[in-house]
Amino acid sequence: MARKPGNGGIAKADPYAGAAVRKGKGKMANNIFKMNTDIGQHILKNPGVAQAIVDKADLKQSDIVLEVGPGTGNLTTRILEKAKRVIAVEQDPRMAAELTKRFQATPAAKRLELILGDVIKMPELPYFDVCISNTPYQISSPLTFKLLATSPSPRSCVLMFQREFAMRLFAKPGDKLYSRLSVNAQMWAKVDHVMKVGKNNFNPPPQVESNVVRITPKTPRPQISYDEWDGLLRIAFVRKNRVLRSAFLGTSSVMDMLEANYRTFCAQNDVVLDDGPLDDAMAGGMDVDEGGEDEGWDGIMDVDDDDDVPDFFKEEADRKAKKLQDNPNRKRKGKVSELVRAKVKKVLEIETELAERRARMCDEGDFLKLLYAFNQEGIHFS
């Protein structure tokens, strides 16, 4: 959109118009209404940062861009200068009204589609080529995985996140911030750090520093089940400093879940099971702890991993875990239980030799090796 010089050489269409002559009054968006910081409303006020974010997206004239949380439109204006169309999803009706007012009666209005609502609750996202977002920090994780699950995959996503969350996205094995989030994100996409953004670039300033990352979904998408993959990682990262032997064999509810899944697999594939009780000799030889304390598992990770993936990916696993906990017969061990335990030991000790490795030291290849070996034994995680 061409900018026509106006008052004192200041372009009226510029989102920062008049800022230079309003010294001492630089509350722009706050002059319109009070920001709701509870839902992450922090308006990006630095024009240089806004332009850099759009430039890093490498937009084409034919691109349809999804913008999440457009606010008053400081990024939107710059996106519209380079893209064919912008689909802006805004949760706050006040912000939506300001965005609409800003582009009314301008040539860009016809190329802007505004959706009022919560992007996470949308059952399906409209088609888009690139996503650009000054992301409300409360939805960082669910938005990331919603974008990665979108089909067809976008070409890239340039997203602003809280610094620690961004660093976890591209952390490597052994790093302090390496977590289930790191493995999941890097399995489905290439993650690049773009730049740091200080808190003073926002109005009002947030409590934390920010980083911009570029997420490029892998093409073609890895041919594995997300539920299977994440189910394995949830167990491995129960305590990321525990060895994998303890994470699997030392946690009774994990073994109960794997046994239930194995029974389902056998039923679906006409595999006959000897479902009798263990005789005294076999029961006496069962290795209960396997080097770790026999504790219950409710699907919760270490504190820093608890919100790695959104609720709609967690609900089914949590439901299964609760069902196992509520089952009065869950402590009764039989031949099937011992068979499953033997299969898990075989995978960890013989097939992969990862029994003594800690999750925080395993890379994507290690977890793929584990998943393949478990599946070959008929053990599944969803």
UniProtKB/TrEMBL annotation:
Any Gene Ontology CC annotation: nucleolus
Membrane-crossing residue ranges in chain numbering: none
Pfam family, one: RrnaAD
Recorded GO MF terms: 18S rRNA (adenine(1779)-N(6)/adenine(1780)-N(6))-dimethyltransferase activity; RNA binding
Reaction equation(s) it catalyzes: adenosine(1779)/adenosine(1780) in 18S rRNA + 4 S-adenosyl-L-methionine = N(6)-dimethyladenosine(1779)/N(6)-dimethyladenosine(1780) in 18S rRNA + 4 S-adenosyl-L-homocysteine + 4 H(+)
Domain spans labelled Ribosomal RNA adenine methylase transferase N-terminal: 49-219
UniProt xrefs under Gene3D superfamilies: 1.10.8.480, Vaccinia Virus protein VP39
Family in the record: Belongs to the class I-like SAM-binding methyltransferase superfamily. rRNA adenine N(6)-methyltransferase family.
Protein name per Swiss-Prot or TrEMBL: rRNA adenine N(6)-methyltransferase
Organism from which the protein derives: Baudoinia panamericana (strain UAMH 10762)
Lineage, uppermost ranks: Eukaryota, Fungi, Dikarya, Ascomycota, Pezizomycotina
